[in-house]
């Protein structure tokens, strides 16, 4: 994999930033990596749908909420460990995502972003109200011993469970890269993302590719939901903030840049952790995401104007 001079400078700057934070506050660095990896793995499926289908999915966070609740249901009714519930939950969301695509999203693929936003906003509201009807608004928690495990390096102690997000993010990235480059369906998916009209001309079933990509993106949220459950209190609006942060990461990384999602997520996660570490300023952490997003958009607009 090769990088441009501009990308190399950005990577070197980011590495310098990470090293400085590590020497200053190792706990902040570890918290930021774990937090940023979680943001990245949630944003990856949204970026995939945006890059291939061109659909702005405002219901992204609500699909994550559904995944969390289904994982909780398996734990509560069948005593299934949240990490083991990843398999059935992701399969259920795979099918659920496919049905949602066939019944709704498929109809607005060519209708422009405004119709897509209105449709997916409507889906998000239906999912939100459906969760309230089935599970009520009462917050729910799951306790597992391993979710609060810790490790020590010298005098530095840190929680280890959050590193599962980094592992999942890396595995999802590797899977997506291998799928896109090594399989016929993956190569067809890449072709559709580049030029859907041209893909149709050469005989690629574009509708099948769209169905597959959307379904897989929702299934990934099922994996994330199972991983988040032991450390996250769940309630109907738990997933909503992640939609905005996922859009922010996708915009910062650039359309189709899946590797950049993980990179940007970790950097911004560390930025949030730094704000949280300052007494009295933890409520300002979200400004990191959206402040950087504004700067990135304005910088790109300025470059394009030149």
Automatic annotation (TrEMBL):
<keyword id="KW-1133">Transmembrane helix</keyword>
<keyword id="KW-0029">Amino-acid transport</keyword>
<dbReference type="Pfam" id="PF02653">
    <property type="entry name" value="BPD_transp_2"/>
</dbReference>
<feature type="transmembrane region" description="Helical">
    <location>
        <begin position="37"/>
        <end position="59"/>
    </location>
</feature>
<feature type="transmembrane region" description="Helical">
    <location>
        <begin position="117"/>
        <end position="136"/>
    </location>
</feature>
<dbReference type="InterPro" id="IPR052157">
    <property type="entry name" value="BCAA_transport_permease"/>
</dbReference>
<feature type="transmembrane region" description="Helical">
    <location>
        <begin position="83"/>
        <end position="105"/>
    </location>
</feature>
<dbReference type="GO" id="GO:0006865">
    <property type="term" value="P:amino acid transport"/>
</dbReference>
<feature type="transmembrane region" description="Helical">
    <location>
        <begin position="12"/>
        <end position="30"/>
    </location>
</feature>
<feature type="transmembrane region" description="Helical">
    <location>
        <begin position="156"/>
        <end position="180"/>
    </location>
</feature>
<keyword id="KW-0813">Transport</keyword>
<dbReference type="InterPro" id="IPR001851">
    <property type="entry name" value="ABC_transp_permease"/>
</dbReference>
<comment type="similarity">
    <text>Belongs to the binding-protein-dependent transport system permease family. LivHM subfamily.</text>
</comment>
<protein>
    <submittedName>
        <fullName>Amino acid/amide ABC transporter membrane protein 1, HAAT family</fullName>
    </submittedName>
</protein>
<feature type="transmembrane region" description="Helical">
    <location>
        <begin position="283"/>
        <end position="302"/>
    </location>
</feature>
<feature type="transmembrane region" description="Helical">
    <location>
        <begin position="247"/>
        <end position="271"/>
    </location>
</feature>
<keyword id="KW-0812">Transmembrane</keyword>
<dbReference type="GO" id="GO:0005886">
    <property type="term" value="C:plasma membrane"/>
</dbReference>
<keyword id="KW-0472">Membrane</keyword>
<dbReference type="GO" id="GO:0022857">
    <property type="term" value="F:transmembrane transporter activity"/>
</dbReference>
<keyword id="KW-1003">Cell membrane</keyword>
<feature type="transmembrane region" description="Helical">
    <location>
        <begin position="201"/>
        <end position="227"/>
    </location>
</feature>
């Amino acid at each position: 994999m090769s990088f441009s001079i501009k990308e190399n400078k950005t990577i070197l700057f980011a590495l310098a930033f990470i090293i400085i934070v590590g020497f200053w506050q190792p706990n902040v660095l570890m918290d930021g990596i774990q937090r940023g990896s979680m943001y990245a793995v949630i944003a990856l499926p949204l970026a995939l749908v945006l890059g291939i289908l061109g659909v702005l999915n405002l219901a992204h966070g609500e699909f994550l909420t559904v995944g969390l609740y289904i994982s909780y249901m398996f734990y509560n009714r069948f005593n299934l460990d949240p990490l083991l519930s990843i398999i059935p939950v992701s399969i259920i969301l795979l099918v659920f995502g496919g049905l949602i695509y066939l019944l709704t999203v498929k109809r607005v693929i060519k209708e422009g972003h405004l119709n897509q936003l209105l449709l997916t906003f409507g889906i998000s509201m239906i999912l939100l109200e459906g969760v309230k009807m089935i599970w009520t608004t009462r917050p729910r928690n799951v306790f597992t011993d391993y979710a609060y495990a810790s490790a020590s390096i010298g005098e530095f102690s840190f929680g280890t469970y959050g590193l599962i997000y980094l592992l999942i993010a890396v595995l999802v990235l590797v899977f997506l890269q291998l799928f896109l480059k090594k399989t016929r369906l993956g190569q067809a998916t890449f072709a559709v993302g580049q030029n859907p009209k041209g893909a149709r001309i050469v005989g690629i079933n574009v509708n099948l590719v769209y169905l597959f990509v959307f379904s897989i993106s929702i299934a990934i949220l099922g994996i994330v939901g199972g991983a988040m459950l032991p450390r996250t209190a769940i309630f109907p609006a738990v997933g909503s903030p992640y939609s905005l942060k996922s859009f922010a990461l996708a915009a910062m990384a650039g359309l189709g840049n899946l590797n950049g999602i993980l990179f940007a997520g970790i950097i911004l996660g560390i930025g949030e952790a730094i704000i949280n570490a300052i007494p009295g300023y933890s409520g300002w952490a979200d400004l990191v995401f959206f402040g950087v997003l504004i700067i990135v958009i304005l910088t790109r607009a300025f470059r394009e104007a030149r």
